[in-house]
User: Fold this.
Amino acid sequence: MPITDAKLLVVDDDQAVRDSIVAYLEDSGYSVLEADNGEAALALFEQEALDLVICDLRMPVMDGLTLLRRIMEVTDEVPVIVVSGAGVMSDVVDALRLGASDYLMKPVVDLGVLEHSVERALERSLLVRENYRYRVELEARNQELQNHVDRLKLDLQAGRAVQQRLLPEKPLERGGFRINHRMVPSNYLSGDLVDYFPIPNNRLVFYVADVSGHGASSALITLLIKNQIDRLRDEIDNGSSDVVVHPAQVLALINQELLKTQTGKHATVFYGVLDTEKCILHYASAAHFPAPILGAQQSVRTLDPENLAVGLFENVEFNEHELSLDGFERLSVMSDGVLELLDDASLQEKEAHLLELGADASHTMLQFLAQMTERGKTQAVPDDITVLTVENSVNGRKSA
Assistant:
């Protein structure tokens, strides 16, 4: 099947041969130009958008091999078929080395053989051009994708930098209590949030939040929660409101704020207010998991998750608890990423293992996380890992 819109050039100093080839190819539907030597052919090649050249080798002024070499110096996308009666094997070898797509011996008794060679050469040339175009398009798309990935990396770095600025810079110590934290972010933007700060009347506020999912949307929700609680902190500082000291009310406000975003994001939160003078802890949990571990001089137990996560339903009421801290040694609050560090088979086994670690007097959970980091076990975890500890610096031990 001829590519009928192809333009061919027939180069031969024998007028009769040239006429017969041109006539045959034109009858087959090709547009055909002709030249009687290599120099004239090269001039036409430079002027016309040719798709294929058929040339003899032995010609005056410029021979076929020189013409072939000059064409290949310009482009290898235009196939050249050599049709020669020279019959010297070295000419065949030279022509093919220079890039000739085919070599036919004169006389070509059946011009259908030449036409078949032309069709194959044009098809190969078309495939080469299409492959080149696809390669160029693919490279352009790969570059575009790489640029997009690079922009995402920059956004990711910027997001992480902003999130790190939200975290407490150092431990907080007041009235014999010490609050500290450690966070190991995943490869994604963090959905964990931890903070603590003093408020009037010898009280300390602390909380850990774990927003569902990863990426920019989860990170932005942590900013919203942080902003909401900071606003409540400002209100008690300026005397306009004391909501910040009521854990259940704080969770209810965060619940409403998350629902307003209509992002479908929810978060587990553990929020506590520690009265260092009265040694009383007020806290509320929005389905925070795993259960915080409370260590006292005579016992270790968990503060089991309760209520719903914030951001799921309207008009949710959160339970608030008051806990005496007589004999208190430490409280460990962790995000669920810490479970990824445990090799136990089931979730129940991981929870039991976590309680054992919390009860182990030889280290704190902060020290446990530091040890796991030193061993490289936190490098490939799919989730953020956050640990917050509240320690009685009189009864308990200070973390590193």
